[in-house]
Amino acid sequence: MRLLLLPLAMLALLCCAAAAAVEPLLAVVVPAAPGHLAPSEQDINLIFKRRKQMWRDGSRIQPVNLPADNALRRRFSRAVLKLSPDALEEYWNEQYFHGLLPPHVVASESAMARFVAETEGAIGYLPYCSVDRRLRVVLLVTADGRVVVPGSGPDSVQACGVSGSES
């Protein structure tokens, strides 16, 4: 019986490692329009907790989330907001009594891309490979949860599972 369990345990570990390896790079995005300054990781944390509501130029920040059960949102919350889904829910329940509402929620990644691209002051997150020219990446989260500033090092990003430069 033990001889049967060992190969099954090894197979389970391999499957978990393979699943982690294919998690998409997460990109925090703003509209590509000129004039948008790149917020820091700390700024983004404050923005999505609604503790920072204005950009430096005085315009209103419009953060947007994916649904609470979305895997990308859970990764974003853990890596950037430093909160588990349960802790984040508790945070918003508490903030509600202080009159602070959570960011707007869109139904899908395509809705996220459209909202951020077309909404003044918007900020959101997508899989890196879903970012198009309407959007500008201001922060990246790797599959292992590291937060990386775009262009901060030659090995900091392996875009879309392909190494090398894009043309």
What would you say about this model in short?
The chain contains five helices and six strands, in the order αβαβααβαβββ. With 167 residues, it is of the alpha/beta class. Strands 3-2-4-1-5-6 form a six-stranded mixed beta sheet, sandwiched between helices.
The strands making up the biggest β-sheet line up spatially as 3-2-4-1-5-6
Shape estimate:
globular
Number of DSSP strand runs: 6
Calculate Rg over CA atoms.
Answer: 18 Å
Order of helices and strands: HEHEHHEHEEE
- End-to-end distance, in Å? 54 Å
Round the mean pLDDT to the nearest integer and report it. Answer: 82
Please mark out the parts with pLDDT under 50 across 5 or more consecutive residues, or reply none: 2-21, 153-157, 162-167
Share of β-strand residues: 15-25%
Tally of helical runs: 5
Share of helix among residues?
Answer: 25-40%
Classify the secondary structure makeup into a structural class.
Answer: alpha/beta
Biggest beta sheet attributes:
6 strands, mixed
